[in-house]
Amino acid sequence: MPQIETVYSPSLIEHYSLRGKTVVVVDILRATTSMCVAFAHGISHIVPLVSIYETILYKPQNYITAGERNGQKVDGFEKGNSPFDFMDADIKGKPLAITTTNGTQAIHASTLADNIYIGAFVNLQAVVDKLVSDNQDTIILCAGWKNKFNLEDTLFAGALAELLYNGGFEMNDDASIAAVTLYQSAKNDLPASIKQSAHAQRFERMGIEKDIDFCMQMNIYDFVPRYVEGKIVV
Amino acid sequence: MPQIETVYSPSLIEHYSLRGKTVVVVDILRATTSMCVAFAHGISHIVPLVSIYETILYKPQNYITAGERNGQKVDGFEKGNSPFDFMDADIKGKPLAITTTNGTQAIHASTLADNIYIGAFVNLQAVVDKLVSDNQDTIILCAGWKNKFNLEDTLFAGALAELLYNGGFEMNDDASIAAVTLYQSAKNDLPASIKQSAHAQRFERMGIEKDIDFCMQMNIYDFVPRYVEGKIVV
Taking CA A112 as the corner, what is the angle to CA A107 and CA A115, rounded to the nearest 5 degrees? Predict the structure, then answer.
């Protein structure tokens, strides 16, 4: 049976073997949620980048550019990292270059894996269906906050690990077991649990609480974006 | 008010500022528990070391030497890492040099902190009393298993964080909040929760289940070992 493992920070991924495995990258607030939104609104592909500088270089190539640091849009980019930034008919058919504090870093940390998928609550069931169909060892990589553990990505990991376990995956690692326990204790009121997290409180201070409500929605999209050869595609 | 933070792996500590703070190093199974046992049986001081090679060098200096890798005693050392190894009248008044897979590494990862304390369930209340009296920002550093998250150290972190919070500390980081949630869901039967962890199952396979039962005992010692200038002392 395929195995599930959960990793709480991109800077822990070096302690795991990635070859022959699938990594699901999750940055609930907000990168992986926003990427799903962008695809739902017709973006052709996404190039996730580590640095602001690299991302700016995509401007002359007619990419839409998006940049976020510490939760705020970076000056000079068309978009930030809010899901609402990508609910825009004008993005249809265009490519996107994006750099964020945590999510795009986590994607790059996963590059040795066989498959890299983009997961969020908004496409949770689609991710489960794809992983069960692939039947491959799977690592759930939480983007965290600046390489520290965060609650919202862990709750997603718990939800996903539980569904995979019910779908026949083995779950032996303490991080997955803990994530499932945390999800079970939070799932009756997920938005309330998320809103007590440090990251959500940071968002409230920035007045972007509506982003949190959006990112907590379950299964509004039925596709799984995939990172392959430098690009995320659907 | 002083702050509590929890760190789930020595390899995440680089993302935290340690200056002006206290670090409580925890390796429930078994290094920090066994160190408490050694002091309770009269060891004079402990030198925690990263490598087997360094530890061997203490033999000619009349240190008792202890070495453990992957849960097993290393050949050529007098002791392994079991608490029962140190329940021995012969260690009284002698110094100990020890290297373990996780615990001694975590102590070395903490060296930039102002104070470094050794915590375990066996001296939990003494650690709380000391931290409340010090009234300083505190990081609970879980030794984990080969830099991966583990359950038993996290449950200890949750128990400690909850007591500190009740003692007036602030708790804002997601890792502490999650640890407290996990501890609350486990505390009615801590040994059973620990025994479902990956590390405990590794122990069962090695036939050292009695070590787990010992390490789950609460408050049998009333002192806090402290790492200062390369030595742990009481």
Answer: 70
Q: Determine the Cα–Cα distance for residues A164 and B220; give it in Å rounded to an integer.
A: 41
Task: Give the global pTM.
Answer: 0.95
Verify whether the Cβ–Cβ distance A11 to B8 is below 8 Å: no
Q: Domain limits of chain A?
A: 3-228
* Dist CA B110 CA B75 (whole Å): 28
Q: Which residues pair with B140 in a beta bridge?
A: B6, B24
Give the closest residue to B120 by CA, choosing from B233, B29, B206, B58. Answer: B29
Least confident of A164-178, B173-187, B202-216: B202-216
CA distances to B28, B130, B143 from B206, rounded to whole Å, are 17, 35, 20
Contact (CB, 8 A) for B29 and B212: yes
**Number of residues written out for chain B:** 234
Residue A186 has a pLDDT of 94
Which of A175, A181, A185 is nearest residue B148 as measured by Cβ atoms?
A175
Residues of B at the A interface (Cβ-Cβ below 8 Å)? Answer: 8-9, 11-12, 14-16, 145-151, 154, 172-175, 177-178, 181-182, 185, 196-199, 201
Q: Which run of H or E residues covers position B208?
A: none
Nearest alpha carbon to residue A171 among A140, A199, A213: A140
Confidence check: pLDDT of B193 > 90: no
The label of the residue with tokens 């998006």 reads A66
8 Å CB contact of A150 and B15? no
Predicted confidence band of residue A127 (pLDDT cuts 50, 70, 90): very high
Chains A and B: how many Cβ contacts under 8 Å? 82
Q: Which two tokens stand for residue A203?
A: 């968002």
What topology does CATH give the domain A3-228? Answer: putative 2-phosphosulfolactate phosphatase (3.90.1560)
Distance from CA of A151 to the nearest CA of B (A): 6
- CATH fold of B3-233 reads putative 2-phosphosulfolactate phosphatase (3.90.1560)
Cis ω before B202 (30° cut-off from 0): no
**pLDDT computed for residue A200 by the predictor:** 74
**How far B171 CA lies from chain A's nearest CA (Å)?**
10
Average pLDDT score, chain A: 95
Cβ atoms B32, B221 nearer than 8 A: no
| Joined tokens for residue A46 | 């996404």
C-alpha A146/C-alpha A82 separation (Å) is: 18
CA angle B128–B43–B145, rounded 5-degree value: 60
Facing residue for B154 by CB, picked from A178, A196, A201: A178
**Are A15 and B146 in contact, with CB atoms under 8 Å apart?**
yes
Asked if B23 contacts B190 with a C-beta cutoff of 8 angstroms, the reply is: no
